[in-house]
Amino acid sequence: MKDVNKDLNLSVIKAFKLLDVYLNDKQAWGVRELAKKTGYNKTTTYRLLSTLEALDIVQKNDNDKYILGLKLFELGNLVSVHKSLRYYSRIPLENIAKEIKETVHFGVLNNSRVLYLNKVESPLGLKVSTQIGSSQDAYCTALGKVLLAFSSTDQISDYLKHVKLKTCTLNTIVSSDGLLTELKQIREKEYALDMEELELGLICIAIPVFNKDKKIVAGISVSGPSSRFKPENIQSYLSIIKKGAFEIEAHIRDYN
Amino acid sequence: MKDVNKDLNLSVIKAFKLLDVYLNDKQAWGVRELAKKTGYNKTTTYRLLSTLEALDIVQKNDNDKYILGLKLFELGNLVSVHKSLRYYSRIPLENIAKEIKETVHFGVLNNSRVLYLNKVESPLGLKVSTQIGSSQDAYCTALGKVLLAFSSTDQISDYLKHVKLKTCTLNTIVSSDGLLTELKQIREKEYALDMEELELGLICIAIPVFNKDKKIVAGISVSGPSSRFKPENIQSYLSIIKKGAFEIEAHIRDYN
DNA sequence: TAAAATCGTTTCATAATACGAAACACTGTT
DNA sequence: AACAGTGTTTCGTATTATGAAACGATTTTA
Lengths: 256, 256
Fold this sequence. Notes:
Chains A, B: Residues 9-70 form the HTH iclR-type domain. Chains A, B: Keywords: DNA-binding, Transcription, Transcription regulation. Two copies of one chain form a homodimer. By secondary structure, chain A is of the alpha+beta class. Chain A folds into two domains: 10-76, Arc Repressor Mutant, subunit A; 83-251, 2-Layer Sandwich (Beta-Lactamase). Chain A has helices spanning 10-24, 31-38, 42-54, 70-76, 83-100, 142-149, 153-162, 176-189, 231-251; strands spanning 58-60, 66-68, 103-110, 113-120, 135-137, 192-195, 202-210, 216-225. In chain A, strands 5-4-3-8-7-6 form a six-stranded antiparallel sheet, with helices on both faces. The first copy, chain A, has a two-stranded antiparallel ribbon with strand order 1-2. In chain A, strand 7 and strand 8 form a beta hairpin. In chain A, helix 1 crosses helix 3 (42-54), helix 2 packs across helix 3 (42-54) and helix 6 (142-149) crosses helix 8 (176-189). Chain A is globular. The two termini of chain A are 36 Å apart. The interface between A and B is large, with 48 and 48 residues. Chain A binds a DNA duplex through residues 6-7, 9-11, 30-32, 41-44, 46-47, 50, 64.
């Protein structure tokens, strides 16, 4: 809580840092639990929560623990950033999911992470399921790698400077050189694969979505269990995903 | 800004009241514009916006005006209230929309208003389109009336005490007695109609969704232009919507 | 059954912070 | 050249947030 900041409302910052707890642990919290998580005083936490509750930003559940309230749902749905991406991606994603029968994701790079803007889940029982609005490390997912690959060289070197590549599985790329080579190959092939790099048994294909200036704005990925991703399927999957990407690109030519 | 409140963080309240501006006017705002809208001092508004920008709650658009930021999108998608309603309503709503080819809405009563939790738009060019997360007065919509009708008598009389029934069209019910009679009929028929009460040319059918205790938890509505809502269609529409309601009810039996 | 350990909540003197008028820098218009 | 818009910074003052301690109510442990 040092004041390196110029001149900001500290209690507003505190309030949102408290809400940030919910980004990591999506559960209901008590006053003392949140006080411990945030490092705030118990009374401070209590006062913040009372304030947020009065505003319908948080609310108590059946066990008198705090959960995020409906006002945040209302505000979240008003966010106009990437709104056209979200809007125009829906139907193409559904078409892809209908053909391939695997979960389809649509995301952008945000704060060095993949932010999922949209998804359509596989109709099958065994499937990948990610929450819209959640984010994931970029280096160990196909979607993240394809978004990185077509970023500027400055952005890529910045990414490597600030993000630690951690081992998720035996296949995870953990060296900067390894990732740079991988990104170069992705640029050449115009698609990315995640062969169990994030999680064992999980395979993922991703392709970029460009605007009219050939600048990357988003990516589409299809993911599922390795048992269903045979090498002979990947090419046909790619052409189906590319068809969806073309549809989206047709609508967002003025996106920047 | 009177302190009738017990002991709350006033600047946190100010911050969210500022964000509330976006609920009414979904546009980009400058510092002075927001200061005028909120009644805050220009400097206060500037400091609040700088704080919120540092937290990614708002961000500047191309014209250096403030819009809601992606952090709100992330938080909004974490809201767990009504999450299962939103989840289990999706496919039934899509099936209804596919059959009827009109826009289908799914909503609950929240703060005396209809809050739209989900929607599927009509595939036709001329269609009703409402924003998920937005809300609407209850008394002049079919969805609102059906949600009111099956509320407790206390809630209904409370509603009539606090909400002013304003004329939207010639058909709007503006008297308390008129609305009470209408709600009684809705309880008997188990569905509600909005015959151009909110907007001329706009017709809407709504039915309730109950939990296992026969308590209302949500409602489904189908809306479209009056030219496409012939009296002879309404009965067949109703049976299609009811089928969807049954599907949802099967999944939410423990909802309260 | 008593004691201890939780929980959320309230109090209040003190320390910290938000406030806002005024001045400033910048841009585009008259 | 004067004016009318922006957003931004400064700084003394008035307001507000802070947190240790005490409180009441449950639940758990001895």
